[in-house]
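batch job 7 of whatever, protein = Head-to-tail adaptor
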Amino acid sequence: MPAVTITTDDLAPFATIEPAKAQAMIVDALGMAKLLAPCITEDDFAYPDAAKAVIRGAILRWNDAGTGAITTKQAGPYQQVIDSNTRRNNLFWPSEITQLQTMCKTSSEVFALDTAPSGRRGHSVWCSIGLGGDSCSCGANLTNFEYPLWETDCG
């Protein structure tokens, strides 16, 4: 049994959706979520409830999209109108994709910091080329890379 499961009963407290439609939406949403974050199918997935919340939110938004429902909020002279009549490009928002993919990441990540000299012959150790710069600051380029012209190494 996959770690993340959603049933029509999980959607019922939030919206009234015909069971056949809800089941089809669940299958689609889980399929897309597995494509974006394959780890949610593993039995030892660490965040099944969080993934379920993200997927359920996308399903509920999908259900509301295109209904033409308009919500109006007013407080004094200020008014806010929210129109849910939007077209559906993707099931998941970019932030939801990031959330799902972050749940699949391990806590350790590989990184490297090169502290060794650049290996370029003739440059001073203080030359900007050796320190990650994009131009020579020691003048070795003027001596055919035989020796640094300005920034000589202290030794």
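notes: The chain has a mean pLDDT of 81.
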